[in-house]
Design brief:
5 helices
Length: 103
Amino acid sequence: STEVADSSTQASPDMQERLVQSLCLDDVLAAVNSGMDGWTRLHVATAWHRLAKHAHHGKRSPGVADAVEQLMALTIAHRLNAFRSRDLEIMLWAWGKLRHRQA
């Protein structure tokens, strides 16, 4: 199970930098698949952004679909009302770009 970092936890600079510096879809998928224990809301919003940026026009490869499922579970665990408005804006943009529909 994925542990949720509380709001007082600082985002790991290494993971945040890894997400920000991801140059392709494989980089983002590797970060998501490396484990998300302790990810903060900043990590989650950044991962959504990078995933949407690098996934082409909502094309859903099995790797993208798995990453969306993992990120959605962590997003729900963090509770949407706990995210900053800017992070929510980023996630809404990402969901639109990825053509995400919650089942």
